């Protein structure tokens, strides 16, 4: 059974992602990379805000795998952006 805290985290994350899409679309900057970065930042902030002080629930410990995959994808996005900015003779 889903707990209240876990359910609240899911609802807030989905809301954050929808607002991100709307803002990016309004700014005509909607891209998969920017959407992922905003969603990932939102997830990191939510996990930190909902983390209990004493005991970490099992469902929050499992989030570390999603966060790890998110960091890998985020790193790939950043490296691609940096390589696009650098002159072609550097690499």
Please outline the helices and strands.
Blueprint: H1 4-26, H2 32-50, H3 58-85
Helix pairs in contact: 1-2, 2-3
Q: How would you characterize this protein structure?
A:
This protein has 91 residues and is mainly α. The chain has one domain (4-85). It has three helices and no strands. The longest helix is centred in the last third of the chain and has 28 residues, at 58-85. The protein is flat, with a radius of gyration of 16 Å. The N and C termini lie far apart (52 Å). The model has no long low-confidence stretch (mean pLDDT 89). The chain crosses the membrane at residues 9-28, 34-53, 65-86. InterPro entries: DUF8044. Keywords: Membrane, Transmembrane, Transmembrane helix.
Put the structure in a nutshell.
The protein is mainly α. The chain has helices spanning 4-26, 32-50, 58-85. It has one domain (4-85).
Provide tags for this entry:
91 residues, mainly alpha, DUF8044, transmembrane
Distance between the termini: 52 Å
Considering DSSP H and I runs of 4 or more, what fraction of the residues is helical?
Answer: over 70%
Q: Given the helix and strand composition, which structural class is it? A: mainly alpha
Q: Which residue ranges are poorly predicted, with pLDDT under 50 across at least 5 consecutive positions?
A: none
Rg, rounded, reads 16 Å
Range of strand content:
under 5%
Number of helices: 3
Secondary structure: number of strands: 0
Helix and strand string, N-terminal first? HHH
What's the average pLDDT? 89
Largest sheet: none
CA-based shape = flat
The tally of structural domains comes to 1
Transmembrane segments: 9-28, 34-53, 65-86
InterPro entries: DUF8044
Pfam families: DUF8044
Keywords: Membrane, Transmembrane, Transmembrane helix
